[in-house]
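RECORD TYPE: protein structure
NAME: Terpene synthase metal-binding domain-containing protein
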Amino acid sequence: MLVSILDDINDVHGTIEELEQFTKMIERWDTSMEDLPDYTKVWFEALFVSSSEIEEETTKEGRSYCVSYTKEAINLILLLTQSARCFNEDHVPTLEENRKNGVFSCTYPLLTVSSLCGMGKIASKEVFDWLFTHPKILASTSDLFRLIDDVASHEFEQERGHVASSVECCLKQHGVSKQDAHDELTKLVESDWKDINEKPLGVPEKDVLQVFLNFGRAADVFYSDYDAFTESRTMIKRFD
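PREDICTED:
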């Protein structure tokens, strides 16, 4: 649910002012939703309910520290307004700039935090502290997710109005063909996989590494042939 919410925000259906208003609401958590546009009320309510459920369950387990980490991860949504600003100003960033922002716009850091919340005592406070040092494996998995998504979905998303994807950034920056751009991004994905398969330093629990590997595999499933997450024709519907 959270991924869908943030993915919709990245489609930039609203104005910069509306997006910034929404993110300020997330930061406050204790305010009403009266001033929000109707479509953002749905997003905010879903975020609030999800956060409340996490707080309830983890507190029962004696892991109330998960709550602050979850809220901090959700607040990273503020960075997505930069993507929205690029779209509204008709600006196409460099591929390097887009990949840096893509670490957050792919929503993977938030997904990782949410997954750890459900892993019980394996996900100790030390694990969360390690994750928020932004280890290489987190950046590489996020980048992989963003790039695979962009290659599979950029044509469909550009038709409906969307921020420039990694493909458009590569096309404009290097003046190459669409196929050459796809080939270049595929090489970057292969490099990310190598980084993911390296043994990271300082990880408190080895079982935590499986989370990163599984999300990388999920990206392959969702985006191997087309954007099956956005256009769930047949395959992804089986998991509903």
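COMMENT: The chain has twelve helices and no strands.
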